[in-house]
Amino acid sequence: MTDRIYNFSAGPAVLPEPVLRKAQEAIWNIAGSGIGIMEHSHRGKVFDRIINEAEAACRSLAGIPDDYHVLFLQGGASLQFSMVPMNLLPADRTADFLLTGVWAKKAVKEAKVLGRTVHLAASSEATNFDRIPQPDEISYSSNPAYVHLTTNNTIYGTQWKTEPTVPAGAPLVADTSSDMYSRPIDVRKYGLIYAGAQKNLGPSGVVLVIVRKALVEAGPKTLPTMLQYRTFAADRSMYNTPPTFGIYIMGEVFKWIESQGGLAAMADRNAEKAALLYDYIDASDFFRGTVQPDSRSLMNVCFRAPTEELEGKFIAEATRRGLDGLKGHRSVGGMRASIYNACPRPAVEALVAFMKEFEQANRATAARS
Ligand SMILES: *Cc1c(COP(=O)(O)O)cnc(C)c1O
User: Fold this and answer.
1) Residue 211 phi/psi, 5° resolution?
2) Whole-prediction pTM
3) Which residues lie across from 192 on neighbouring strands?
4) How far is the CA of 149 from the centre of ligand 1 (A)?
5) pLDDT tens, 262-280?
6) Ligand 1 atom showing the smallest separation from residue 101 Cα
7) Which domains are assigned to the chain?
8) Which of 15, 102, 131, 274 could form a disulfide bond with 298, CB atoms 3.0-4.6 angstroms apart?
9) Looking at residues 127-154, what average pLDDT do you find?
10) 77 CB less than 6 Å from ligand 1?
11) Ligand 1, atom nearest to 76 Cα
12) Parallel, antiparallel, or unpaired: how do β-strands 192-196 and 172-175 relate?
């Protein structure tokens, strides 16, 4: 394909090409209906089948048990920073947070805006979020209503390798926006999982929420209707007009993951892609990784060059070569390659080849600085 370049954007991010091809047709005329996906009523038969298939594919990928709702909501992951404490955190309880980056901080901030009590059970802020806290650094409050974590820290490039141990009876709540379905996930370990679609699952404008039914039922009924999970649980995410196009694409992405061998196959492929980059960074004395090796993300690979001038040059030259979206977040600097599920291995190979070339060409400049 000559008209598409390699996209390493953190989000919105690359989508699987077969999904985009199919969507091109679906926008014009879906399922022989003579009407495009964006023009169908959400109350009609065509969309009914789309949302059913999306939910079924979502459930089958992770074996989601029947006592969990699968919801397709709006407001992004950021609205979940508020909806979670509104629905799951009574005013007389405490929620524990594992602070591993900017997104976790925003989740804490929104719980505090509501006047709720928050306990920081662990934080890696002192070292600019360069790692995931070790088990012995985590100290929970006596009886938390839930424990919140961010499974993958998109900005810093760190990722929890396994779930932390939590106090008995405390549901784990996870923001999985940037690594959802990049690897197997045991939903039973969680009370609630949320993921904005635009990193690994689809277009922006839809957020996936997987939540234990009992938690939804226990939530307060005094909240605005649109902010209660039960509103969407009762109407299969169709209390009001849902983000129909986003749900369609998400369903197609789920089916694509299935066709690729499912979550275990995704995990293998993602580990191989990430290893291409990390192995090269480790072998290089020009580039260096920014996070502790045992905390490295398989989704967002953050690295730096010897000087900021060289980093600017690297990003500019990479862009000219059709390697796009490599500029790191301003709070880390340097470069970030986001290599989600849909990022093909040849994209990573092309990036590593360019890095080698750039290192060769600029080694002398670096040595002088
Ligand atoms: C991108 C991102 C968010 C914010 O998502 P929105 O959909 O823009 O609200 C939250 N958490 C994580 C981990 C993210 O990567």
Assistant:
1) -140, 140
2) 0.97
3) 173, 211
4) 13
5) 999 999 999 999 999 999 9
6) 13
7) 17-259 (3.40.640.10), 261-368 (3.90.1150.10)
8) 274
9) 97
10) yes
11) 7
12) parallel
